[in-house]
Amino acid sequence: MLEAERQRNDTLDELVALLQQLIKKSGTNRTRLAERTGFPRQQVSRAVNGREVPSPDLADAFDVVFGCNGRIRHLRDEAHREKRARRLGAEPPRRDKAQPSPQSSVPKEGQELGLQATLPITPSPLPGRGPSNGPIGVGDPREARATDRRDALRAMALGTAALGPVAADLSRSIAGADPDPLSVDLAEAHIHRIAAAYRVTPHGELMDALGPEWQNIERILDRRVSPPVRARLTLIAGQYAFYLGTLAFDLGDDDTARSLLRVASQHADETKQLLPARSPRRSDVLLLDGSVAAIRSSVAYFNRAYSEAADIAAQAREGAHPFALPILAGCEARAAALAHRPDDARAALADMQEHLWDGAVMPGPNPGDAAFIHGFLAVALAHVGDGVQAEQHARVGLDLEIAANPDHYVQIGGKHNALCRAYLRRPEPDPEAAADAARHALLTVDGRPNRTVIQQAGQMWRQMDGKWPELPTVRDLGEIVQTSRRALESGPGDPASACA
What we know:
Largest sheet: none
Organism: Frankia casuarinae (strain DSM 45818 / CECT 9043 / HFP020203 / CcI3)
Protein name: Transcriptional regulator, XRE family
Order of helices and strands: HHHHHHHHHHHHHHHHHHHH
Distance between the termini: 34 Å
Domain HTH cro/C1-type: 18-73
Helix content: 55-70%
Region (Disordered): 77-146
Number of strands: 0
Strand content: under 5%
InterPro entries: Cro/C1-type_HTH (IPR001387), Lambda_DNA-bd_dom_sf (IPR010982)
C-alpha cells in the first residue's frame, strides 16, 4: 500500500537536511545514534527521514550528541508549529532568523559524535623525537601551539561565563514549564464531567466552553513540559479535540469535524509514544482511538459514503476498547446495510449485541447500552427491509431511552426517526404513522437543532412526499422540516452525539 503524501513542512525539511548532514560529517549511522541518544532506532529513523517531527526529548538528545547548542530543538519546535498551522489551514508562523545557521552547527571533519573538537587532532611531537625537541625559539611551531592553547583557554573562560546566565534562565524555564499538578488533575476530571453531562447539557454552551480550554492546553504543550506531564496533557488535548470534532459534526460542519478528529487521532498516536509500555493510561488512548473512529464513520455515513463508513468502523472494531466496541459495531452495521453488504451488517449486529455496555459512562460517544443496541438494530434492520422487526426494536429502544433520562433529547429524537423508518419498511407502509414519528423527532430537538435528527427526518419526508404528497400529515411534516433546517443553518445550536 502506498503511504499517504506527507503534509508540506518547510522547517521539517530543513531539520532533516541538517540531521543527515550531521550524521555524514560525524561518521556515524542511525543505529549508533539510537544507542547514543537512548531512543529506539525506529523513532530515530522516522525523525531523520522526515516522516514525523521528532519529540522534544529526542531533539534535545540530538543537540547534546551533535553539540548543536539548541539549534535542532529550535528547528523541531518551529516544525511542530508549522505542522499545526498547516493542519488547521492557517498560515505558518514567521520563522525566527536569529538562531544560528545550520552550517554553524555542523561538526568539523574528524570530530567525534557528541564531542566538541576543542583540542588539536594532530598530536604534539613527543620529547626526544625530531627537530622540535629543545627550547622554544622564534618561529618554532610549538610557540604557535602554546599561544593557541592560551587563547583557547581565555576564550573558553569568557564563553563559560557568558553561558552561566543562559543556563540559569533555561533551568528556570524548564522547571516552570509544567503546570501545577492540581491543574492537570482537574483537567482530567473535567473530561469525565463532560462525558457524564454531554447528553443533557445545552451543547451551544458546551462548544463555547470547550474551545478556549482546548486551545489553552495546546499552548501549554508548546512549552518544554516534562515527559510524564506531556503524556497526560496530550491525551487530554486529544479528548477535547474529539468532543469538539463531534460537536462540529452534529452542527453539520464536516470539514471542521474532520480536522479536529485528525488532531485527536494525532494526539492519541503521540501519547502512545510518550507512555511507558505498561502504563494503565494506554487503555484511555485505546478508547480515544475507538471514539474517533466512531465519529469518522458517522461523518462518512451522513455523507452517504456507506462503504467507507462501514470500513472505518470495522477496522477500528478489531481489538477495540470494550466501551467503544458496541458503538463501532452499530456504526458498521447501519453503513454495511446501505452498502449492500447484508452479511457484514448482520455479523456486526451480532457483535454489537454480544458486547452490550452496562458500565459507567466514559469519555467518548454515547454508550452502547441497551437503548443504543435496540436503536441500531431498528436502523439496520429497516435498511435491509425488515420493517416488522425494526419496529419492535425501535419501540423498545425509545422506551428505554426515555426511562434512562427524558432529557436525552438527541437520542430520543433518533429513536423516533428509527420508528418512522420502520413504518416505511413494513410490507404495507404506514405513511401517516411514519410522518407522525418524524414530527415527534423534530419537535424533540426544537430549539436545540441537531444535524443527525434533522437530516434523517428530512430524508424520510422526501420519500413520503414523493409517494403520498396529498396526505395532510406529510405536508405538515414538510413545513416542520424546513423550519428545522433553517434553525440548524442559522448558527450553533444544541448538537449531540453522532451515534444516536
